[in-house]
C-alpha cells in the first residue's frame, strides 16, 4: 500500500501576532496640550476683548493713538483692565474659563477621542476598560470617563502641573487623570 504524502499548501502565511499599540511619548502629549492651551487662551482673549469692547472704544474715543506715548498708555490701560478683571479673581471670568476648558476637552474627548492639539500630534485617548468606553463605539470614551478625566486633569493643572510629572502606571505612561478615568493615550503613526 502506498502512503499518500500531504504537503502544506504553498503561499499561505501563518497568522502573525498583533502588533502592540504604541503608547504616546510624553513630548507629544505636552506639545498637544500646549497647542490646546494656546487655542483656548486665544478664544478666551477674543471673548474678553468683545466683553470689554465698549470700555476700550470709549477710551480710544477720548484718547486717540497719535504717537508712541499714546500707544503705551493704551497698552497700559488694556493691561490694567485685564489684570483687574482676570487676575484679581473675578469669579465671572474664572467660571467662564473653567466652563470653556471643560467643554472643549470633554466634548472633543467624547466625540473624537482627541482634541485639536492631539490630532496635530497624532495621539488619541482610548478607553482601557469596558466601563470607560462608550456603548455606541468601544473605541471612544464614555461621558463618565471624559468627566472624570477632566476633573483629575484640572486638579493636576491646579497644582502647577506637578502631577503630570509622575506616572502611576509606567507600562502605559498613565498620569493621574489617565489612571482614574481608566484610559491611555496612544500614538497613531501617520
Automatic annotation (TrEMBL):
Domain RDD positions: 24-181
Superkingdom classification of source: Bacteria
Alphabetic keyword roster: Cell membrane, Membrane, Transmembrane, Transmembrane helix
InterPro entries: Pra-immunoreactive, RDD
GO CC term, one of those recorded: plasma membrane
Keyword Transmembrane helix: yes
Main location: membrane
Upper lineage: Bacteria, Pseudomonadati, Spirochaetota, Spirochaetia, Brevinematales
Transmembrane stretches, start-end: 30-50, 92-112, 140-166
Protein known as: RDD family protein
Pfam families: RDD (PF06271)
UniProt-annotated location(s): Cell membrane
Source species of the chain: Thermospira aquatica
Entry membrane topology: Multi-pass membrane protein
Amino acid at each position: 500500500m502506498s502512503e499518500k504524502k500531504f504537503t502544506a499548501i504553498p503561499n499561505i502565511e501563518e497568522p502573525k501576532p498583533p502588533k502592540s499599540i504604541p503608547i504616546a511619548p510624553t513630548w507629544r502629549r505636552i506639545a498637544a496640550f500646549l497647542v490646546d492651551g494656546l487655542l483656548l487662551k486665544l478664544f478666551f482673549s477674543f471673548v474678553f476683548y468683545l466683553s470689554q469692547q465698549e470700555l476700550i472704544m470709549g477710551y480710544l474715543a477720548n484718547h486717540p493713538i497719535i504717537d508712541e506715548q499714546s500707544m503705551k498708555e493704551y497698552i497700559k490701560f488694556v493691561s490694567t483692565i485685564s489684570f483687574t478683571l482676570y487676575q484679581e479673581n473675578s469669579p465671572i471670568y474664572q467660571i467662564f474659563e473653567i466652563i470653556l476648558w471643560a467643554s472643549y476637552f470633554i466634548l472633543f474627548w467624547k466625540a473624537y477621542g482627541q482634541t485639536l492639539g492631539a490630532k496635530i500630534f497624532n495621539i488619541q485617548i482610548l478607553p482601557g476598560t469596558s466601563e470607560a468606553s462608550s456603548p455606541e463605539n468601544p473605541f471612544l470614551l464614555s461621558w463618565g470617563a471624559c468627566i472624570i478625566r477632566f476633573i483629575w486633569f484640572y486638579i493636576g493643572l491646579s497644582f502647577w502641573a506637578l502631577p503630570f510629572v509622575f506616572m502611576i502606571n509606567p507600562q502605559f505612561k498613565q498620569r493621574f487623570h489617565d489612571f482614574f478615568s481608566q484610559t491611555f493615550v496612544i500614538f497613531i503613526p501617520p
